[in-house]
Each structure stands twice: as structure tokens, then as C-alpha cells.
Give the backbone structure.
Amino acid sequence: FGLLAQLEAEQERWFLWLPVLLGAGIALYFLLPFEPAMAMGVLPLVAAIAVRRAGRPSLGAYLATGALVAITAGFALGKLRTEMVAAPVLAKATGTVAVEGFVELIEPRAGKGQRLTLRPFKIDKIEEGALPARIRVRTLQENADLRPGDAVRLSARLSPPPTPALPGDYDFARSAWFARLGAVGAAPGAAIVMPDPPQAPLGLRIMASIEGVRLAIGRRVTAALPGETGAIANALITGERGGISEATNQAFRDSGLYHILSISGLHMTVIAGAAFVLLRTLLAAWPAVALRYPIKKWAAVGAMLATLGYLLISGSAFATVRSYVMISIMFLAVLLDRPAIALRNVALAALVILVIWPESLLDVGFQMSFAAVVCLVSAYEWLRERRGEGTGRGGGMLRGLLTALLFFGGIVATTLIASLAVAPFGIYHFHSTQSFAVLANLIAIPICNFLVMPAALLGLIALPFGLEAGPLWLMGIGIEGMVWCARGVASLPGAVGRVAAIPTLAFALMVAGGLWLTLWRQRWRLLGVVPIVIGVIIAPLGSPRPDMLIGRGAELVAVRGVDGRLSALSGRGTNFELQRWLEHDGDARTVAVAGKGEAWRCDELGCVARVKGLGVAVAKAPAALRDDCATAALVVLKFQQASGCRSARVVVDRRRALAQGTHAIWIRPAGVAGEGDVYEPLLRVETVQEERGARPWVLATPEAGRQAIDMVMPPSGSEAIGDEP
């Protein structure tokens, strides 16, 4: 058959699809609205293996059963990883409690104070068996003498990891589960080192020693380069970004250069490449060694060790670990006399990461990093094949032309390819585009690659001898150039485009098409353009935007005005939530402007508005309940109300809003059916709690099992969310 013949011709590319299929199984696990039992996670894999062994020895059966095994293996890995990292999570917010624990990580803040990651061994009012494995606390005062591994005491208000700002938004609590982070909080004072502390666990003591070295390096860097230039240098060397101002962070985001501030593949590759070239050059200068021994392999081993050292002092963030795995596999290919730059190595790196950390599939950094690398390596392989073909036909002239093209157009080409590769991910996750990212990267990437990071490597080499000032001064010049570029590009008119949330189907089609286009080699890979085009066509259609949003605890309420934009009644501590709503909407307005509540009419008892012909009321006090329930179809109560308000279509009180999280409400206006029948407005309500399902990282609430209203018709009685049944 034609399909099987094509697949057989692509046999050497089959391995590239193994991490894709494994990832599909992992995605299937995370998409479930419930937590499967261990048997449900493992038995499908056993069954798939049995089917494969019993199947007929045909090509179609071989590929189908192999794909089935890979998908079920991914599902099983997701389940096993969830169980392996299980740790207690704080059930509810506490008042001010005394906390004692070991310092695992210290992160300075640009304003004031510190952010501490602690391993608690005592928290007031919490039994030892219910203690979270880790907590993260923001202190408003700094203890400059604090060191990783110290046992500290502080008073803090703790709460469970926060839930999404609206249904389908980023779920920090899920990420916290896999980081074994069971609580977050704030402390008004500084952490105090305990005078007679218990001994820290061995693993923590080892990690604290590494963190101590990292902290010392950071202080030497900022001493040599004061101000924000030093803070950026510290971020590029130790991974600590807390000293960078929000204005500078925003400039790098808006210009498309924010990836430079976060140590990842770019920085690891430059350090690894610089170390490899330096070591190989030094070994080549020693003829007695260069003529007798494989100095290329020696340099590869040395570069791997240098990159490992950089990994340790850079904080070992997950993005850095991921990059190190990929670089190590490429150096391993050098040791085995295989091509270092090959899609097979990229696939192997992805496979290793997904097997060890299945949850990384959901990490935006993982997605964007591998999207860029896959597209770049695929383009490199295509160009290498064309160069080989051209050399055979046209001789040295074409080869010289291609070499010149690679030399002068490499930066332009890689920037364009990487930008196109990550664009769907940036739009889907961040709802924004950087219009001049290519221009900014064309200026900043050469500065980073040829000046900043090599100077950073020289600075690290010179650091033990106290000679770091010169290399760091050179690094500072490059950093100032990158900052100038970021601010200049970010200030250009139209530098940032806001994009409303696109349908998941459009995103999935673009990703699937991109994989088909890059992973196959034969001409049929061009079929991948079809789903990409379809995804691009349906992306602007967007997902239906809610007509009303009720925030967690009913502190924030917004309705969609006649201009199609949200008009919000904001409360204390709701700026972040409202900002996420605006980003999801593709709305460039500030929180202050959107929170003016222009669509609302308010008095001392509450506020009212109208949305698509329905009345909306927000009651601040029980005294407003009678009138609001009589006149409004949608009622929000900023207090707990156990009963009443039966005439309203939907009622959300504070208790329900706390338990179910943000409520999103869609309204289909009243109209006339085909036969002339008049129908009332229809409502659809979704909550964060319902969308997240019953998973280990989702705290159970008394109302968690209640289903959201789906296209509610005017009830004969009422359907009130917030009232007792």
C-alpha cells in the first residue's frame, strides 16, 4: 500500500516519533478529569505489549502495536511520576503561624526582602505527618547573612498553592505538586537563624554547599559590576534574576529577548561550545598530544564537565537541566564518532527527559525549546543534504556560495526559523506577539554569543585567582548593549501585539503539522503544511469569550461591555487575577483602566449592570439581597449566604466562589427560533474547580463534585449556585 511504502522508506526516521508518541500518552494522562488508579495506569501498557507480541509480523501491525506501546507507556509514566512525588499540601490558608525549617534556596527581590524556599520541620497547628515537603515564603525584610542550609524561624501566613485565574489558565498548583511545594506565603519580618538547630539531611547539606558557592560567586559578580548591569550578569552566571527591575524585565519581554535573561539552551550551548573550542585549541597547540591522542574526544569530555559545573552554579533550574541533557547527548555522539547535530540526538534527549520528568511536557520552556531546536536541526539537515548534492553537481563554486551564505545568513536564518517555530506557543500560552523580535535578536544574539557569554566563561575561570574584574567589565559592556537593544526595540510603535486566546484545536493542528513537516524526510512531509494552514485559519476565530467572570472569593467581578471589553469591579489583591483575564482577552489595557467599572452603576449596597439583556447585581451587604434577587438574573454575593435568592437564574456567593474558584459565564441572548418560537437567554457556567477535575493537586472541597450549569433554560424553580441544595 502507498502509506506503508512511504513509512517503510522512512524507516530510519521512526525513532524520531517515539518521544512524540510517548508525549501523547503523557498528555492523555494529564487531560483526564479524574485520577486513574495505578492499575488503570499500568495495565494498558501490559495489554499493549501483549498485543504486540501476539500480533502478525506485518509492517502495519508492527508500527501500530509499537505506537500503542509508546502511548500507553507515556500514560503509565505520568501516573507513576505523580505517585512518586506525592507529598502533603496545605489544606487551607492559615493565620500567622511560626515556621521552622531549613533554607533550601534564597532569591533576592528587586524591591525589598527575599523569597525563601524552605524544608519545614515544624509549623504551628500542623501535625508532623501533614507538613509540606517544601514551602515558599516571601519575606518583606532581608537577612543578608542567611545561607542555604541554615535552620531558620519566622512568622508567616501560609496558603495552598494558588489555583488558575480562570478555567483553562495556567495551573501553578499542578507545577507545585511535581516540585513537592505544598504551601506559599508571606512574612512581614526577616527569617532568623536558629541558635541550636537540628542537623539538616545529608542531601540538603550537599545542596547547601553548592548553593553557598553559587551565592558567593553572585556576590563577587555584583561587587565587580554594581547596579542593574551586575544584576543581569549575575542572572546569566548564577541564574538569579531577582535583582533585575520589572521595567527591564518588561523591556526584554516586549522586545522578544526575555529568553536571554533565563539560563537555558542558548547559554549552555555557548558555554559548552566555548569550552570545547578552548580545550581543543589548547590540546592542538601541544603536538606530542595532538598527534597521538583523540583530542576532539578529550575536548568533548572536558566541555561536558565544564557545562556540568555551569549547571551547578546556575541554580540547576529545570530548563538548565533539560539543556544539559541535550548537550551531553550531543557530546556523547562525538565520543561515539556520530554526528553531533542530528534530529536523532534531539529525539533521544526529549525521550530521556520525558521518561524521567513526564510533567515537563506541560512546561512552556520544554515546548518552546524543543520546537526551536527541532526546526533548526531539521533545517540544518536539509541544508547539509542540499550542500552534498550541490557539491557533486556544481563543484567548488556552489560549495563556496553555500558556505558564504551560511556564514553571513546564519544568524538571520536561525532567528527567523526559531521565531516561527515558537510563535504558536507564545500566542497560545502568553497571548502576545513581539513584532520586532527578529530585529532585536539580530542585534542582541551576536552580542550575547560572541561577547557576553565568552566573557562570563573567562570570568569564571579567573574568579579563583581574583582576576575576574577584567572579563566581567567586558561582559558588562555587552550587557549594556543588550539592554539598549531591548529598550529601544520595546519602545517602537506596535512592538507588542495582544492576541486573544486561540482554540486549543488550532494550536494542536499547528504543532502536529510542524512535527510532520520536520520529522519526515521524503516529499510527503510537505503534507504537514495542510494542518498548519488550517490551524492558522481557525486561530483568529478564537475561543468564545465569557460574558461575565467572577473571581475567587467574589472579590473581583467583570462583565463584557457593549464595546466587547471587560469592565471590572476590582477588590483588594485582585490585580494579578484581572491582569490574567485581560491577557486571555487580548486586551492591552492596564488593570487600573479596566478596573474602573464603567459598565456598572454602584451605591453603598452594591452595583448593577446589564449583559446581553440580562441584569447583573453584585451585593455588598445582605440589605441589598431582596432587591437584587428580584431584578437581576445573575447575582454575586460578597458574603456567605446559605439560602434565599430563589428567583435569580444564577447566584454565586463568597463561599461558592472560594470553593469553586473563578466562574466564567457565557450568555446566548434571547431570540426567535426558526418556527417563530421565542426562547429565553441561555447560560453556560464553567468553574476552575470543575475544569481541573479530581486530581491529586486539586484540593477537594465540599462543593467540588457539583457540576457546572450547562446551557441552563429558565427553570421552573431556580438553579442557584451558592445556595444549599
Remarks:
- The chain has a mean pLDDT of 86.
- Residues 364-430 form one domain.
